[in-house]
What we know:
Bound molecules: iron/sulfur cluster
CATH superfamily of the domain at 19-30 and 116-355 in chain B: NADH-ubiquinone oxidoreductase 51kDa subunit
Strand order of the largest sheet of chain B: 1-14-13-17-15-16
Distance between the termini of chain A: 49 Å
CATH architecture of the domain at 19-30 and 116-355 in chain B: 3-Layer(aba) Sandwich
CATH class of the domain at 19-30 and 116-355 in chain B: Alpha Beta
CATH topology of the domain at 19-30 and 116-355 in chain B: Rossmann fold
Strand content of chain A: under 5%
Number of strands of chain A: 0
Radius of gyration of chain A: 21 Å
Number of helices of chain A: 16
Number of strands of chain B: 17
Number of helices of chain B: 17
Oligomer: heterodimer
Largest sheet of chain A: none
Amino acid sequence: MMAWSTPPYLLADVSVRRVMLQVLVALLPGIAAYVWLIGPSILVQLVIATLAALLGEAVMLRLRRRPLLLFLTDGSAIVSAWLIALAFPPLSPWWLTVVGVLFAIVIAKHLYGGLGQNPFNPAMIAFAACIVSFPALMSQWPALGLKLSLAEQFEIIAGLAPRIDAMSGATPLDALKTALKLGEGAVDVPTLLANQDVFGNFAGRGWEWVSVGYLLGGLWLWQRKIITWQTPVAFVGGLTLLAAILWAWNPQQFASPLFHLFSGGSLLGAFFIVTDPVSGSTTFRGKLIFGFLAGAIAYVIRVFGGYPDGVAFAVLLMNLCVPLIDMYTQPPIFGMKNPK
Amino acid sequence: MLAQLFRFKGGVKPQTNKTISVQEPIAQAPLPARLFVPLHQSIGGAPNPLVQAGDTVRKGQLIGGADAWVSAAVHAPTSGRVLAVEEHVAAHPSGLPTLSVVIEPDGRDEWIERRPVDHQSLPPERVRELLRDAGVVGLGGAAFPSHAKLTPARSVAMEQLVINGAECEPFMTCDDMLMRERADEIVRGIAIFRELLAAREVLIGIEDNKQEAIAAMHEAVLRLAPDYRVVAVPTRYPAGGAKQLIRVLTGKEVPASRRSTELGVQCFNVATVYTAYRALACGEPVLSRIVTLTGNVERPRNWEVSLGTPMREVVALARPRADTGSFLMGGPMMGFEIPDLDAPVVKATNCIIAASPGLFPPPPPEMPCIRCGACAEVCPHELQPFELYWFSRARNFGKTQEYYIFDCIECGCCSYVCPSHIPLVQYFRFAKSEIWAREREKQAADAAKERFELRNARAEREQAEKAERLARAASARTSEKKAPPERTNAVDSPPAAAAGEPAAAAATDADAIRKAAIAAAMARARAQRELAQPKNTDRLSAEQEREIAAVEARRGAQPATPEATAGAAGSGAPAGPQRGE
Ligand code: SF4
Ligand code: SF4
């Protein structure tokens, strides 16, 4: 007799590894735009994050006595690592990236039971932990026009070169918020966007195209049925709706929905973070609620809160609500839709 | 034909692999040297043996009589001599034996007297009886006695009779070939069922990958019964599940908790209809069935096989290739691995697949669930398989029921798509059988408790009477020595008081009474302890084991029968149509 004796004897050609691999592929357009427009240092960060993730994963698997090769090659740790690298400032010192990744893998993932068990999105946990612990480093974004060679960038990341002033730029979101605050009503959004260098055609210069890259990758994932449309659409909807209301009410003080959509972590969040199946909602209506509220909360935090972006905290908050959301949104089953 | 088609949610599209076995017409399999005809071949009660060793039987002779309404008769597939009525390994995943009639064919193949009847001239009850006695059961794999499904609901008019020729399992082609070659008989058989149910409409559903069968059925319908509709349904597993086909053709959804007749619809498999026709119009009970032999074999083909033929002899006809590791009965999605090729072909044997690691690679290692939702996406009953999985794993069986585990038809779509390769169906079967076991245990415990309490009450009564007697005797003796008034006192006092009463002169009697009371209390405590003890599951008595085996066998009779499982447990009653029935 053979080893398998349980139906079905036919299995589709799918695996966790293949799912994760496709997620990584879907990140490539965004990464390409990142390298092109912001700087190749992100590649260094991706490598550091990947190595740290694999190391952390291996150690934890060994400690937990789990099959090493099987889980090390499932790709899930690399996905978390890449998301962290993409969410962190590109010139962060190497150890910051490592700390973030290890936090995600060791604490957010394995201490909760490993693959499939984590109630919170590991990458967002890492981001939140680091922005609370190292607020200064986490807000040092390379100023635009900072022309550094790859070698110079590498030296900064490795800590071999001093961190220079030009590096401590701000993200477009941050720049807008700070300018509005300093201007105390005297400046208005349209003028700012038109005059400051950090802003591009419809959002942050450069960053807007990175976001377009994430959008393309996300659409591909949807087309491949790796993600469903509900969460991204609801997330974008929540964010856009709030942005649109405030913008319509006072366009001088609030940026347009388009600006918000293509700034910060909006689209990375919409297609790669809130779509994380493990920590997200699983039902049709649950996904809509989860995505919508995450988007709305992200907007509130980013515009009214103390942090430059709100996606991470919004997602973590909503992760907390998932069991409740899922419980109350169970769909009716076959034959029970209109009970007579 | 213009028919509005509905969609059922979910489903998957595995490689169908059907063309290999439809290249040649159905062939007659030779009779083996010995036939092992199990008496219990259908859902419901096991028929009683009507023959014994040494009897000679004719072809078609009744050898097992239906023992209840939900039960179906069994017949001698050929003429010959009964060698034994004994336990023989069954076509069941457990490989457990079942009571079977062993027949040595005499080669003459002599029929009993066949009595064709005209069903139109008989009252419906009589027709249903005839079907039961001809052993007509669902041949799609469920083996549910057909006559029991042929009574319309009293309050609901029967709107549609659905005839299932969908045959959605990969590899399987027995219904396809039957429709191609014997369409006329099928169409005539439908007329019988339609009349019994007084169905307004007849819809014959066939997956659109069987164009020849559709054409043949279409042609027969045009000639014989132009108001039937042959409908090509999209090829998507499990379109041949009775509930799915009903949904696609009528838009009705039959939940596990209801019978389909309550919704004015009933469903039968084409092969079932065919045997019903043979039974009435030719007087021939069900003695054989079409079996697809396919998979890793030199010569895939459909064979008409006498029931009771050992599988070993059947598979030899197809010439399995050398690297064949095992054989599956049923399709690759819902079938099971045949544990022993000595098991005979039965009414539920629709397909035998030679399996090799190349054809069905062993599953990759199981990973944790990542809640990707792929399983929920394909579940035709719109369940949340991963939630069921979590709860089954956690042995939280109450929750599995809240999430409708008994609506699961075990179709395997969820396991098929799971990227973590979790054998979800296994978990669900485990949870279901666990729930049944607990249910049984509870019933047994309740019965035991009742028995115990009765016994207890009796013991107490007897004790009270005894104490009373003793007290009376004691006080009588006392009164002999002392004053008579004490007598009434002793008689009136309750037994306990009597036992403790320190009537000085009756010390010995009082002692005896106390001892009796203590012994009784100890016995009670012991009995209670026994009752409270957890049921020990790893040291089962022979009787318990037999009981479990019986239940397993009942369950196992249905691995290819989603509704049977769901229905049996969901409502305690057969929930209408069986899969492909
Ligand atoms: S398909 Fe598998 S991994 Fe995905 S949710 Fe279902 S059980 Fe979990
Ligand atoms: S086996 Fe059960 S849970 Fe899985 S897809 Fe089929 S009906 Fe749904």
